[in-house]
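Deliverable D5.2: sample structural annotation.
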Amino acid sequence: MKEQIISKSKDMFLKLGFKSVTMDDIASEMGISKKTIYKYFSNKDDLIENTIELAHKEVQEIIAIIDEQGFNAIEDNFEMKRMFREMFKGADTSLLYQLKKHYPDIYEKVNIVQIDILSVCFRKNIIKGIKEGLYREDVAIDDYVKFYQILIFNINETIILEKDSHILEHKALEYHIRAMATLAGIIELEKHLKNPII
């Protein structure tokens, strides 16, 4: 039952927002009593943290699936963007924006985990792209990981609407790749820009 509550809550939080969904809403949607929810979660904050942990696991699963596909580094980026877009397609408001505004303590914890996950992902992608000749060999990897991280987090923390943050993230991805790309990388990038994921 605990896993079912987390899964349903995640769907509802994504669709309607962390602030607007109440424990009563979740209980009603699931056809259970609020008491049942409190059997597993001490309060709404506890439930939100559990749903975010589930979302982080799903993000890592997405990254692992993409790793197995044999795409080049630039294809990896666009496929990841497409899969995340699919994962968060029901959300109206940026989730990081909501957390930062309404649940700052949870936001701080989430931020630490997300930075770790994304740092590893961005670093692997840059190293892969250099090996493939799509990114320049002289790329300062640590700096570029930080630059892109700052861009992505700033977009998600300050832009209210998910669709607006998605458009800016797409532009940030193009900016990030262009800054590192070799001529072969630019050609590969242009190919993907002709088929936008927006």
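Annotation notes: The domain at 44-193 is CATH 1.10.357.10 (Tetracycline Repressor; domain 2). The longest helix spans residues 104-131.
The annotation will be released with the project's public dataset once the embargo ends.
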